[in-house]
Write a structure and sequence with these properties.
mainly alpha, 2 domains, about 70% helix, elongated
C-alpha cells in the first residue's frame, strides 16, 4: 500500500501522531508508522505514552461532544433566535444576490454536535414562518 508522502519520509512527530490516531489512519498506516519509529530507535514507551495521551484527549473530546448534544437554549436565547429569524432567513434568500454570505448558524451547531440546539433553532425558524403565513392569511381575509 502506497502512502503519499511515504511513511519513511515523515517526521518522527508525524509518525507518533499517526501511530496514536486510530480514527484518522488505517491500521496498515499505523503499523508502518510504528515500524518506522522502531527503525529510528524511538522507545516503545514513548510510542505507548503518546497512544495513551491521544486516547485520553480523544475521550475528553468525545465527552465534550456528548455534553454539547444535551445543551439547549435558554428561554431568552430562544426569543432572540426567534426575533432575528426574519433577518437571517431574508438575508439567506436575498443575500446572495447582494453578494452577502448570511449564515443561519446551523452548520456550526451541527459541526460541534449541538443536536438539541440545532433542532430548537430549526423549530424556531419554522415557527416564525408559520406565524408569518398566519399573519398573511389573516390580512388577506
Amino acid at each position: 500500500m502506497d502512502f503519499h508522502p511515504p511513511i519513511a519520509t515523515r517526521s518522527t512527530e508525524e509518525l507518533l501522531k499517526m501511530s496514536s490516531d486510530a480514527d484518522s489512519w488505517q491500521p496498515e498506516a499505523r503499523a508502518l508508522a510504528r515500524m518506522e519509529l522502531d527503525k529510528r530507535g524511538v522507545p516503545v514507551e514513548e510510542v505507548e505514552g503518546r497512544e495513551q495521551e491521544f486516547k485520553g484527549a480523544s475521550l475528553v473530546h468525545h465527552e465534550l461532544r456528548e455534553q454539547h448534544a444535551r445543551e439547549s437554549y435558554s428561554a431568552r436565547e430562544m426569543l432572540w433566535v426567534f426575533l432575528k429569524a426574519p433577518l437571517l432567513l431574508l438575508g439567506k434568500v436575498f443575500g446572495r444576490k447582494l453578494g452577502l454570505d448570511v449564515k443561519l448558524g446551523l452548520s456550526e451547531l451541527d459541526r460541534r454536535n449541538y443536536r438539541r440546539k440545532y433542532r430548537q433553532r430549526m423549530a424556531l425558524f419554522v415557527l416564525w414562518l408559520v406565524v408569518l403565513i398566519g399573519l398573511i392569511a389573516i390580512n388577506v381575509r
